[in-house]
Automatic annotation (TrEMBL):
InterPro entries: Bact_HTH_transcr_reg, Tscrpt_reg_HTH_GntR, WH-like_DNA-bd_sf, WH_DNA-bd_sf. Keywords: DNA-binding, Transcription, Transcription regulation. It holds the Pfam family GntR. It comes from the Bacteria. Residues 7-75 form the HTH gntR-type domain. This is GntR family transcriptional regulator. CDD domains: WHTH_GntR. PANTHER family: MANNOSYL-D-GLYCERATE TRANSPORT/METABOLISM SYSTEM REPRESSOR MNGR-RELATED (PTHR44846), MANNOSYL-D-GLYCERATE TRANSPORT_METABOLISM SYSTEM REPRESSOR MNGR-RELATED (PTHR44846:SF1). PROSITE patterns: HTH_GNTR.
Length: 76
């Protein structure tokens, strides 16, 4: 995925992750990739990855268990 670096990047990363969720790439209850992995895949900072994941959490697509990571909600 080519990111447009002239505009904020985290929404672009969140959009791609959203597309993957919609396509069923991540199954309900499955552990979602961590922010370190997302940052490496998209070649962005970890804080950018954190913002993208936080947006998906706010939308109710993910939930987080402290110390275990983020998981895909059943009703995505």
């Amino acid at each position: 995925m080519d990111l447009d670096r002239s505009v904020p990047v985290w929404p672009q990363v969140a959009d791609e992750l959203r597309r993957r969720l919609d396509a069923g790439r991540y199954k309900p209850g499955e552990r979602f990739p961590g922010t370190v992995d997302i940052a490496a895949e998209f070649d962005v900072s970890q804080s950018t990855a954190q913002k993208a994941v936080a947006a998906l959490r706010r939308e109710g697509r993910l939930y987080t268990i402290l110390g275990q990571g983020s998981f895909v909600k059943d009703d995505v």
